[in-house]
Amino acid sequence: MANPILDAIIKYSCLTLPIVLQNNDIATNVLYAVKNMMTIDDPAIVIQWNDPGFNDVPTMPGCRNGIAEQTQNAIVTVFTTNRGIDVKGFNTVFYLEQTMILDNVPSSEWYSGRVCFCRCGA
Asked: What domain of life (predicted)?
């Protein structure tokens, strides 16, 4: 039997999530990481890729603003080089062991070194 009050609470709760977690695939990946990989103090970086933002210059597809060094792979490489673990290899959720300091990840004008949720390529 459906519970309209519970249904309303769940619907409201989902709508108040950060936009990136309203994507079912990303949310599933985050839940997998939290349940199976992370400890309570491990930080995570969650990325929602904006593919059109990486294809805004027709002569340089896959590069943000046509700059060869600004690709999705370049961002992923920064995190994995700095001991970030790419959850399930989907390039959307990276968790870092508690001992890893986010300040060691270099920052640039197109992403921040201290990110919880980000939309890359905007």
From this structure: Eukaryota
CA dihedral sign of residues 73, 74, 75, 81: positive
Rounded Cα distance, 69 and 111, in Å:
13
Residue in this structure with the two tokens 């919880």, named with its chain if needed: 116
d(CA 74, CA 63): 10
- Please indicate, yes or no, if residue 14 is contained in any of the structural domains: no
**pLDDT top residue among 12 and 81:** 81
Does this model's pTM top 0.70? My answer is: no
Rounded-to-10 torsion of CA 31, 32, 34, 36: 150
The whole-angstrom separation of Cα 98 and Cα 65 is 34
What residues make up the domain containing 74?
A: 19-120
